[in-house]
Every structure is written in C-alpha cells, then in structure tokens.
Amino acid sequence: xxxxxxxxxxxxxxxxxxxxxxxxxxxxxxxxxxxxxxxxxxxxxxxxxxxxxxxxxxxxxxxxxxxxxxxxxxxxxxxxxxxxxxxxxxxxxxxxxxxxxxxxxxxxxxxxxxxxxxxxxxxxxxxxxxxxxxxxxxxxxxxxxxxxxxxxxxxxxxxxxxxxxxxxxxxxxxxxxxxxxxxxxxxxxxxxxxxxxxxxxxxxxxxxxxxxxxxxxxxxxxxxxxxxxxxxxxxxxxxxxxxxxxxxxxxxxxxxxxxxxxxxxxxxxxxxxxxxxxxxxxxxxxxxxx
Length: 290
Description:
Helices cover 40% and strands 18% of the residues. By secondary structure, the chain is of the alpha/beta class. The protein has a six-stranded mixed β-sheet. Helix 6 crosses helix 7.
C-alpha cells in the first residue's frame, strides 16, 4: 500500500445552488439541502491484535477514513453497487476479514474461489482509486509502545484520543483548504471506537448555545455529527474497511498467505498517513512522572 503526503482535489467544487441530498450518507445526516460545504466521512477502526501485529511483535490500532462531498458519494455508491453485482456469485457487500477467512457469505463452497476473490478485491480497489473526489487517510498507534511507556510510570494519551485528534486535525486541514463548513462522520453500527471518538468530540467541542471563539476547539467544532450506519448497506463504509484492513496488514508481511492480496493492496494510495510510533509517543504524548 502506498502513501502520499498531500491530498489533491481535482473534482470537488462547491455547489452554486443548494440541493440534495443525493447519497445514502447524505440522507443519513438528516439535512434537507447541501451546498458543497459539507464533508461526509466513512470511518473504520481495526483493533484486532492478530491482524495489527508488526514484524517485531508490537500491536497497533488503525483508524482509516474516506472523505467526500454528498454528490461524490452518490456517484460512488451507484458504481460500487454495479461492481458488486457484475459477477457470479454476486457479492452482497465487501468485508475484508470475512473475504479472507472465507466466512459466510464468502464461503468457498458457495463459489468464492481464489480467482473470484482476487477479481472482487481488484475491482473494488480500482474503483476506489479511480475517484479523485474521494480522499483517504489513516492513523496508526503503537499500543505495545504505549504500554511500555506506561509501565515506566508515565502517562500517555488513550489510543482513542490519539487517533481522534490526529484524524480531526487532518479533517480541519481539508476544511480550511476547501471551504468545508461542517463534517459528518459515519461508523459501522456497533463499532466500538465510535463511542470513544464521540465522547472526545462532545467533551472538546464548544458547548451548544455558546459562541465558538476558542481556535483550539475548531478541530472539534467543525464536526456536525457522528452517525452509526450499517456497513453491509453502505458502500462508503465498505471502502473504508478496505483502507483500514490494508493499512493494518501493511504492518507485516502477511498478505502472501491470503491469496497474494499484497499485489492488489499495494495499489491503494492513502493520501494522509499518520504513524504514532514509540518515538513520537514519547516526544509529544507522554507526561513524565517521577
């Protein structure tokens, strides 16, 4: 999987006349109109230690997201549905862990051979990469390093706070560059990270009915809502799952055992990729005691 440092926007444009919503995510916000200043972000987190372990044995947590405007998501959702249905057996959705392990509905006895799995994954990646108006990011935190630092008697930010602050900072950077005024974040229903992220948002934003005047809260104030959705029904969340899974698997050379998926996952280009390793945790996020 490849990473580039700076996001580029070639298709995003503010709508001259408010309209919509057009996408499934847009309808989920409850808004009646969109003018192009609203950013909709699908988020996925991987905590699984068996998947997030690097070559040195350290365990990491990964948070990944895909961001786009309402109209961009509408076009992507339609194309994603066609991509899933243009094969036999038809793919009801994409969930990388299920695909790799051959769990229902991707059981081998149901026709999901190596070739068909590779075709599905390759087609999905090509579709994600073909959309210049959809932007990707990921954040990775070394949980083992955090535990080592804490065992020395020091305090370190919770991993949820680390990921939330890093991803929110990326979103704020986009909002300034591209005149985004409000952000809606979507997590899979039951995603355990959603509660921690939402708690961080509620505790750090400017309280309701107060005028936002603290620049340090801008990173949180721009978030309009954090919403749960059904990943099996939302193409945006399925695509975010692929980004998170690829970022997690990128920690170690494990893809060869999974249908040579490394050849395909390397095509995923994550525009913003933050890595919080032990050095960074000690320098910026540790309170030394004693």
